[in-house]
Amino acid sequence: MKQIVDFIPLLLFFIVYKLEPRTVEVADLSVAVGGIFSATAMLIASSIIVYAGLFIHQRRLEKSQWLTLVACLLFGGLTLALHSEAILKWKAPVLNWLFALAFIGSHFIGEKTLIQRMMGHAVQLPPAQWTQLNVAWILFFLVCGFANLFVAFVYPAIWVDFKVFGSLGLTLLFIAGQAVYLVRHMQPTSEES
After folding, report:
1. Cα separation, 13 vs 1, whole angstroms
2. By CB count within 10 A, which of 26, 28, 34, 165 is most buried?
3. Any residues with CB less than 8 A from the CB of 72 and at least 6 apart, and which?
4. Are the C-beta atoms of residues 123 and 115 closer than 8 Å to each other?
5. What is the pLDDT of residues 5-52, one digit of tens each?
């Protein structure tokens, strides 16, 4: 459910981006709708609303949600302030690489890897498999970052489509692969023995 809620601002970004660019009059103001800059404004506004709603409902945001919100505000704000879509194109790669760094850092900080901290309450795995799974997440975030960067600057015409559907497809494939891996390596709990 969390991933679906996190996906709402990106989906709204996509919808506004795909609108035919035009100017709309709202309360004696001319507002541009459609294209990258109005889509970026929608991304920022919807991210603030979604994460504020989550914060009110849950009384907290996860670290990854804070990081996503800050990256959205920073890269989106700079994109609008400097009127340069290239800045927004760096958001997904940088965010993915920061997540990869967090997973890398967990090998050296604390007794458990980040993936074990996230999933250890629900899944029992031997230590070697937790390490392998954490490395898989590192590689996933690195690949996603480079894929987003490559598409954004080599194939800019399909960048937004890839950002929404390609990244989602990569994530779903990775999660399906992770599920297969987990089923193969799960240890029985004491109740199952």
Report:
1. 19
2. 34
3. 9, 43, 44, 47, 91
4. no
5. 778 999 999 999 999 888 888 888 888 888 899 999 999 999 999 999
